[in-house]
Amino acid sequence: MKELKLPRLISDGMILQQKKKIHIWGSDQPGRRVMVSFLGEEYVALTDENGQWEIWLGEAAYGGPYTMQISDNGGTEIVITDILIGDVWLCSGQSNMELPMERVKDRYPEEIKNCDNPAIRTFKITEHADFHGPLSDHLSGEWKAAGRDTILQFSATAYFFAKQMYQMTGVPVGLINASLGGSRIESWMSREMLEGCQEALATADRYADDAFVRGQLLQNERQSEEWHSRLDGMDRGLQEHWEQEQTASADWKRVKLPFFFRDTELKGFIGCVWFRRTFTVPVEMAGKACRLWLGTIVDSDTVYLNGTQVGHTDYQYPPRKYPVPEGLLREGENTIVIRVKCENGHGRFTPDKKYAIFNEDGEVELQGEWLYRVGAVCGQIAPTDFVNWKPTGLYHGMTAPCRSYTIAGFIWYQGESNTHVPWVYLDRMKRLVEGYRKEWGDETLPFLYVQLPNFSIDIYDSDADETGQGWPALRELQRQALKIPETGMAVAIDLGEDNDLHPLNKEDIGRRLAMLAAGKLYGIRSECEGPMILKTVIEDSAAGGKVEILCGNADSGIYVDGKEKGNRLIDFELRNGDGEWFSARAELKGNRICVWNEEMVGRPTGVRYCYSNTNKGGLIYNGSGFPMSPFEIEL
Fold first, then answer.
1. Per-residue b/e over 305-336, b at no fewer than 16 CB within 10 Å?
2. Lowest mean pLDDT among 85-94, 280-289, 464-473, 572-581
3. What is the domain-level CATH number for residue 31?
4. Is 259 inside any structural domain?
5. Would you say residue 461 has pLDDT above 80?
6. Which of helix, strand or coil describes residue 413?
7. Cα 548 from Cα 592, distance rounded (Å)
8. What integer is the mean pLDDT of 578-593?
């Protein structure tokens, strides 16, 4: 027999949306009378023939904490406590939205220490895909306030967004986090949003077969187990215990870390290779707990210090940050051994990362010369079928149960996994934005998103498209998506890390999103976006034609800031009548950009800026410190 039940979102600690009618819903026995008491008002609903009921609470100003009583005429009562009223945002996308504060804690140690704020709360939705249709409720989840015991699980992007919003407005911020690393935009879309996209819908149909999905998951598990088991069985390093300090080094070769395998005789290597090095520890560090940082490694690693395992990571993206316990590090000579598995022939120790063992009493650098020896060679691992990334799955399983919850808007950080087919992204974004607004019943809900940052994907990602144009092309389509009403884009071309798909500077990403949100919701007037193109003028039509770009969002002028890449503007290009692109010179004059190439013949037909995976020179900013978006435009 049914009893009074509420969705997981409507629970202790929730944040309800201010200045809008608030939707409260649930289930009970058919024909039951349900009463809701909140802020001195009483509301009544009758359950329908399916046992469903809903109530719309009146608009309320921000504040709290409050209590809500929900009861039925069957004698059941539910009391929800610690309720705040503020702004609620659905935070969605892939890994750079999901990336938790745990991953950036070393960059923001003071933030972790001083994060206690009951006015910032999150509801993290557990990863779940469903291909049969939208779920009515989440499988798990609860509201958590920002504090030392919870902060590491917050989305870093969303947390810094909320923090900035709260500092600007004093309004509580609720974050509903529906995100998953690696996911494509199609996985966050419903069948209705994908109408006419036959290939995507056919894939969704195939994965609606539970037996097929079980088979794919079992195959993933079997293939992985077989590959690793076979490799481990052949690995001489495991058999002969190369992790031990007394291992002979006569058959070991030399290499300097960090390095790309492709630049050595390990080019294309698939299998297991061992690395070892001795290093000297000063007396002040000996015997004490330390931290061991080894950048990132492709694909997986196991690390031994003086014969004792101190760390292991299964895949390439997480930073290798391993704790070294007390008593293991000794004064004088120590030995570190790293066993690396390469699955697809693209091994590396990522350059420009920290390789060291350290504590507050000292630091020993670990870059430089190491010894290495191949333990075993084998064939490439079979590809994994990432079932949860398939079209409609994450929408049905994670986003759809949120549709009835009243919100302020959306923040979105996604696109990396769609760069292999960028040409469909603008259409997908339009469908997603319009679809979400329809589902929430509000065509004016702000949709704020992050443009892809700089990243040398052609160097650091083995799945990069051969043309190297996927990332810049998708950035341009994200820029064009600003034509969708009530959208805003946080430009991030200066906030990425060329050697890391997951840049750590989430504070500035969150701040830029918050500045956009403050403008949309509160009308806070500021330059919250970088310079934008108002119009272009071609000054000459003969050889050496010059293009002048007039910029908006530049009342206080524009300037160049190159940080570590210098202050030269070298990321402009002009296209001739034959469609060929030529590098171009550029200079700034007030709020105008003059671009020219003295050697190009004929009238320019196009101009673009930072149309590559990462910028090579300085970037253009306005007086408020916001960068100009990369672009490609017709002339």
1. bbeeebbebeebbebbbbebeeebbeeeebbb
2. 464-473
3. 2.60.40.10
4. yes
5. no
6. strand
7. 7
8. 94
Q: Are residues 253 and 350 in the same domain?
A: yes
Q: Is residue 224 part of a domain?
A: no
> What residues have CB less than 8 Å from 360, skipping those under 6 apart?
none
Bond preceding residue 258 cis, omega within 30 of 0: yes
CA dist 140 and 398 (Å) reads 10
The reply to whether 163 and 79 lie within a common domain is no
Range list of β-strands (E), 306-386: 308-313, 321-324, 332-342, 348-349, 355-359, 362-365, 368-377
As a whole-number percent, the residues of the chain with pLDDT over 90 amount to 91
Residue 20 CA to residue 58 CA, distance in Å, equals 7
Query: How many C-beta atoms surround the C-beta of residue 420 within 10 A?
Result: 12
pLDDT for the residue 463 = 53
Q: What is the DSSP letter of 403?
A: T
Token pair of 557 as six digits: 């002028």
Average pLDDT score over residue span 26-34? 96
Percentage helix, strand, coil for the chain under 3-state DSSP, each rounded to 5 = 25, 35, 45
Question: What is the C-alpha to C-alpha distance for residues 184 and 436, in angstroms, rounded to an integer?
Answer: 16
Residue 9's H or E segment, with its range, is none
Q: Does residue 363 share a domain with residue 291?
A: yes
DSSP letter assigned to residue 481:
G
Q: How confident is the model at residue 104 (pLDDT cuts 50, 70, 90)?
A: very high
- Nearest-angstrom CA–CA distance, 224 and 113: 40
- Which residue segment(s) compose the domain that 577 sits in? 532-634
Identify the burial level of 541 via C-beta atoms within 10 angstroms of its C-beta, where 0-12 means exposed, 13-18 middle and 19 or more buried: exposed
